[in-house]
Design brief:
single chain; mainly alpha; two-stranded antiparallel sheet; 20 helices; binds zinc ion; repeat
Length: 388
């Protein structure tokens, strides 16, 4: 939970204590609550002024003064975690767990915080153990969500499916999309080990979980290729045009390879040219350019690039245009063009290509699961480019 939230919670509790002390004339309690309130405001002030070290000191002081208020421990632990002092957070929560006077809900909360400490420290087995002890408690849903994150990190897809189904059974969060992706991961794993039957079984489950999952269509084609059936693979991959043409980029090159395998590369090139025309993207153009240059010659590829550059200038097409011009240019222009191409290539190489729609994390590779926020299907395979 957010640290500011903790402060507000603690301040509310202390206010109530102070009010009760004043109302019933409890002088000792009144004095203690006034001291604590003063510490809390001091800590909040440091927090708002972004002085984390002083905030920690104030918290430690407050915890020493009032060890019985568990919220103070949780707030301090949260701050330790945020500052990277995971060892301190772990030790504090472990000590808290040893206390005999903890109420069951406080014990569960402490265990949950300890699990978060282990997760942040990368001690996944210990985090898993802590969260598993929370089954059936008021922290069950949060613990299951944390377990799901752990299994995703560990790529334990079978376990992730079980946990996601448990969360769904609680009727709060729909996770069909995620479960479908977990089955896709299992399909991919099975394909890597050439276990075709297992791949088909997992993919069928992925389709059942989410019939709109485009990755299922992609993987269906991959399975057919693994079975040496390029015609069937082409049939699957061509369906992507109807599902969502933005994803054609992910199969454009594979489609060409499949058409080449059945001796119909010209048909493949014509299909790619159609995709470029109907669903233009600089990366699709890039794939089409390579195959057109190889099969129909540099003049045809050059003509295509020249037209597209005039319609929608971008760095990828610019590189290809320069390449085509280098082929026909003579010195000294050839060297100058080569220099320009090198500079553009260097610049383009360092540019991120895709952006997560959830957290805006930018990456050079396309991911089904965002490496930053962990969201599934948050990337669209479309290049982000300043010049467009
Ligand atoms: Zn993200």
């Amino acid at each position: 939970m957010d640290l500011a939230f903790w402060w507000l919670l603690i301040i509310t509790v202390v206010f109530m204590l102070g009010w009760a002390a004043a109302r019933y004339n409890l002088r000792y309690l009144r004095s203690k609550s006034e001291n604590l309130l003063s510490s809390c405001f001091k800590g909040l002030n440091f927090l708002l002024n972004k002085k984390p070290d002083q905030t920690i000191d104030t918290f430690i002081e407050a915890v020493k003064l009032h060890p019985e208020i568990t919220e103070l421990h949780f707030a301090l632990g949260n701050l330790f975690r945020q500052r990277g002092a995971i060892d301190c957070a772990i030790q504090m929560h472990q000590n808290l767990l040893l206390r005999a006077d903890l109420r069951p809900n406080e014990r569960h909360h402490t265990l949950y915080e300890l699990g978060q400490d282990f997760l942040k420290a990368g001690l996944l087995d210990r985090a898993e153990e802590a969260f598993q002890r929370l089954y059936g408690s008021e922290y069950a849903l949060s613990a299951l969500q944390a377990l799901l994150t752990i299994f995703e990190i560990e790529k334990e897809w079978h376990k992730a499916i079980v946990v996601a189904q448990q969360i769904e059974a609680m009727g709060i969060l729909p996770l069909r999309k995620e479960i479908s992706q977990f089955y896709c991961e299992l399909t991919q794993e099975a394909l890597q080990y050439k276990k075709i039957d297992n791949a088909r079984i997992a993919l069928k489950q992925a389709l059942c979980s989410n019939p709109k999952n485009i990755r299922v269509t992609l993987l269906s084609g991959d399975i057919e290729i693994a079975c040496n059936k390029p015609v069937q693979a082409i049939n699957y991959w061509r369906q992507i045009e109807q599902q969502n043409p933005a994803y054609l980029l992910l199969v454009a090159h594979k489609l060409m390879q499949a058409y080449t395998a059945i001796g119909q590369s010209q048909k493949g090139v014509a299909l790619l040219a159609h995709y470029v025309e109907a669903y233009y993207s600089s990366d699709l153009l890039d794939v089409a350019y390579q195959h057109i240059a190889e099969l129909s010659g540099i003049d045809s590829a050059h003509a295509l690039i020249r037209v597209k550059m005039q319609q929608s200038p971008n760095l990828v097409a610019m590189q290809r245009l320069l390449e085509a011009q280098i082929m026909i240019a003579e010195e000294p222009y050839k060297s100058e063009l080569e220099l320009m191409r090198t500079l553009i290539r260097r610049h383009a190489k360092n540019m991120p290509r895709y952006m997560c729609q959830n957290c805006s994390f930018q990456a050079k590779l396309f991911y089904w699961r965002c490496p930053s926020c962990g969201g599934w299907e948050t990337y669209i395979p479309q290049r982000i480019e300043p010049i467009n």
